[in-house]
């Protein structure tokens, strides 16, 4: 496998990322066609589903009110980008369900009201995309905290949130908590985000072994969340260059808590399309016990038709880190 290139921004912990490599600018990448699907399931144990997800296409549209010309009432620009979000709420008295819904609603408001149209962008705009998503999650954090202050029964409610945004062949990620973003490439599964949990911190510090983390009794203790008991928020951000044939997965811990990465990868490799992948992952997680809510979003990135690539924009990708065949399939 060729080197896997990913650049890393602000993380949940200063030790989580390194910037050792010299930035390498890559230009002129093709547009990728995107197929996606999402599904959420309560599982077999929980009474309420506190997970939420969003799959959205961003595009310019022109609604024709009146015209002397024979044309469609609504016309769309061919330029599109794609937004994927998974949030896993936490808190009693419906607080978790409300927090995750509120966080995604806040992201939607940010996209519609503040986010710049990046159909064509240059290198400085990429950093702005990451900054914008940090701001979006900060706004969501403030909104959840304010709601919890107004309603004592919701005090302490919070949510994880993992967001992925694809534009042409660049994927931007903003992440808080222990929901995850994976990338399946050439048969291998890469975990692109860190879990913001006490156990993950213990692994990084060498207190426990990585193979013991999945069963550790503190594995569900979240150290960084939208809302919750702390006003501070550290948004982990990444960007990477996509390749035709890539398959991305966002999921709540109701999936990876029931299935190993190897089992997840097996399903992703076998499924013909995103809908089949999502449904099979939920089925397998429930067969393994379904102890938590299960939410999955899968997106496929394929080479676009020649007509699409003739419109391609100059896209810059900064490589600040690498995962090779000799390194573990995770960012460290």
Task: Explain what you see.
There is one protein chain. This protein is an alpha+beta fold and 332 residues long. It has a single domain, classed as PPM-type phosphatase domain (Phosphatase 2c, domain 1, 4-Layer Sandwich). Helices cover 27% and strands 31% of the residues. The protein contains eight helices and 15 strands. The strands form three sheets. Strands 1, 4, 5, 6, 7, 10, 11 and 15 form an eight-stranded antiparallel beta sheet that branches. It has a five-stranded antiparallel beta sheet with strand order 3-13-12-8-9. The longest helix is centred in the middle third of the chain and has 28 residues. It is globular. 44% of the residues are buried. The C terminus is likely disordered.
- CATH homologous superfamily heading: PPM-type phosphatase domain
Shape: globular
Radius of gyration: 20 Å
Oligomer: single chain
Intertermini distance: 19 Å
CATH class: Alpha Beta
Give the secondary structure arrangement, pairings included.
Layout lengths: L3 E5 L16 E2 L5 E10 L9 E13 L10 E17 L4 H19 L9 H28 L7 E10 L2 E7 L3 E6 L2 E4 L6 H7 L5 H4 L12 E2 L8 E6 L4 E6 L1 H4 L4 H10 L3 H14 L6 E10 L2 H4 L7 E2 L3 E2 L9
Antiparallel strand pairs: 1-11, 1-15, 2-14, 3-13, 4-5, 5-6, 6-7, 6-10, 7-11, 8-9, 8-12, 12-13
Helix pairs in contact: 1-2, 6-7
Keywords:
about 325 residues, Phosphatase 2c, domain 1, 15 strands, eight-stranded antiparallel β-sheet, single chain, about 30% strand, disordered C terminus, 8 helices, alpha+beta, globular, five-stranded antiparallel β-sheet
């Amino acid at each position: 496998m060729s080197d896997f290139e990913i650049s890393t921004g602000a993380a949940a912990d200063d030790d989580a990322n390194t910037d050792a490599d010299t930035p390498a600018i890559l230009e002129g990448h093709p547009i990728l066609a995107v197929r996606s699907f999402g599904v959420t399931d309560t599982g077999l144990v929980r009474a309420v589903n506190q997970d939420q997800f969003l799959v959205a296409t961003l595009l310019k549209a022109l609604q024709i009110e009146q015209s002397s010309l024979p044309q469609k009432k609504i016309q769309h620009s061919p330029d599109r980008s794609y937004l994927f979000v998974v949030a896993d709420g936490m808190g009693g008295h419906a607080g978790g369900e409300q927090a995750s819904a509120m966080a995604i609603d806040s992201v939607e408001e940010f996209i519609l009201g503040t986010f710049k149209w990046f159909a064509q962008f240059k290198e400085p705009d990429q950093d702005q995309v990451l900054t914008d998503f940090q701001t979006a999650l900060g706004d969501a954090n403030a909104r959840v905290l304010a709601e919890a202050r107004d309603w004592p029964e919701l005090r302490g409610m919070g949510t994880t949130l993992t967001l992925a945004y694809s534009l042409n062949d660049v994927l931007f990620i903003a992440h808080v908590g222990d929901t995850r973003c994976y990338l399946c490439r050439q048969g291998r599964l890469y975990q692109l985000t860190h879990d913001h949990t006490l156990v993950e911190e213990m692994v990084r510090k060498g207190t426990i072994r990585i193979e013991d983390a999945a069963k550790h009794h503190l594995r569900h203790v979240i150290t960084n969340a939208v809302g919750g008991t702390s006003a501070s928020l550290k948004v982990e951000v990444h960007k990477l260059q996509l390749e035709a044939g890539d398959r991305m997965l966002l999921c709540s811990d109701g999936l990876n808590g029931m299935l190993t990465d190897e089992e997840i990868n097996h399903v992703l490799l076998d499924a013909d399309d995103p809908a089949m992948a999502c449904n099979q992952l939920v089925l397998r997680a429930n067969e393994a016990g379904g102890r938590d809510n299960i939410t999955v979003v899968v997106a496929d990135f394929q080479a676009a038709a020649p007509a699409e690539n003739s419109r391609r924009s100059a896209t810059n990708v900064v490589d600040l880190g690498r995962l090779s065949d000799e390194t573990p399939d995770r960012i460290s």
